[in-house]
Structure formats: structure tokens, C-alpha cells
Amino acid sequence: MKLSEKIRKIADPSTPISIKRGILRLIHPLPVSRFLKQIDLERLQEIQQQYGVREETRHWPKYVQAERFLPMNIRRVQDMGLDRMPPKRILDIGSGAGYFLFVCKALGHSGYGLDLPEPELYEDMFELFGLKRGIHRVEKFQPLPETGQKYDYVTAFSICFNDHTKPNPWGIAEWEYFLNDAAKHLNPGGRIYLALNPQKDDRFYDQKLHDWFVSQGAEIDRRSRLLFPPKAR
Looking at the whole model, is its pTM more than 0.85? Predict the structure, then answer.
């Protein structure tokens, strides 16, 4: 790596955030075995046999691979600091097979997932994990559904609803609407945590949108994960 590149990375405000999170993961390890003990492994095996596709790595059947997705979601929980917090209530948008909410539940938190009705695997995994979910498609300039409760965190990981693979992904107007609407579902002091997918040009957003996120108080790490501060009430 060139010296100029090293200097750029050191000067990047996201670098110390990522370093701090990495150190905390080392100080507070969470072994996968701790979470596997809380799963009905016999039922998990049945689900794997029903939906699994040999060597699938890209499409939804991959989500039967608990040994792959538990560590990923343990890391998400650690990076948010949820492994070191008292019980929180979480609304997870695009909840998929529910691994993130399951890890949260195993640590004493509670949560509710929102996602599309298909594939049926998601419903079976939520039932396996003892979680609750609702059916909803996120659309630009359309509100999230009422769930009858408020949350301490609104989260969304590997986000696809922002049209990231299309020529015109969400811009400032769409994200401003989404963040303001999501904030309505938060308790006082609640926060929003987002993890984006890269666009076709491998960027997560253009500089204008990045700067707008920063102007909204977002804490951004080197993986372009955004943690927004509580909204003023």
C-alpha cells in the first residue's frame, strides 16, 4: 500500500470508529456456541433439508446456513454495543431469516421484524427462533406500518429497498423521508442503524449523499454502516 493511501486511511474519520469496534469485539467475545445452544437443532436440520441448496452462496436458500449467518449477526450486535446494554426493543426492517433479532433475543433484548412474505423459509426461521414479524415492502415516500409499540432502535442491514442496483438509487429526499418516518417509531433517545449494500459502481453513495448523512449526525464506519443520533423532540 502506498504511503499516501495509508495516510488517507488514517485521516479518514471512519477509521477510529472501526478500530474502536474491533477492539471491543476482542474484549467482549461472543462464541457462536452460546447461541447454538438456544436453537432447536433438530428443527433447524429439518429446515435445512427442506430449503437448502448445495453450495448456494447468493440467493435466499443460503439463509439455512446458521454457521455462516450467526457469526455475521453476532458481529452486528457487537458493533452496535447491544451485547453490553440493558434490554432494548428493536424494529428490524428487511429482517430476512431473523438471525440478527435472534442474537438480540438471546442477549435479553426483544424485537419485531418487517419483510416480504416470500420466501416461506423466513417464516419458518422466525418460528424456530421464537420471533415475531410483519409483512411490509418498503417504498420511497411511503410510511412504515404501525406495529403498536415504540422501539429503542430501528435497524436495517444489507439494504435493498433503496434501489441500490438501479440507475437512480435513493437520494437525499428519499432518505430524509425514510429517516423522519422511522424516527416516529422510536422511543425518546432511540437511534437508527443502517448497513447499506454497494451500488453497481461499488460505491455505497455519492459524495453529496455522504455529506448529507454526516450533516444529520451519522456516525459512519469504514463499511459504510450508519448510526444516527436521537432525534430532537
Answer: yes
CATH (domain of 197): 3.40.50.150
Query: Which residue has 436495517 as its cell numbers?
Result: 156
Q: Which domain holds residue 116?
A: 3-228
Cell numbers for 35: 447461541
pLDDT (tens digit, 0 to 9) for every residue of the chain, 233 residues total?
A: 555 444 444 445 566 666 766 676 766 679 999 999 999 999 999 999 999 887 767 788 899 999 999 999 999 999 999 999 999 999 999 999 999 999 999 999 999 999 999 999 999 999 999 999 999 999 999 999 999 999 999 999 999 999 999 989 999 999 999 999 999 999 999 999 999 999 888 889 999 999 999 999 999 988 789 999 998 65
Q: Based on the structure, what is the number of domains in the chain?
A: 1
In b/e form, how buried is each residue of 63-82, taking b as 16+ CB within 10 angstroms? bbebeebbbebbebbbbbeb
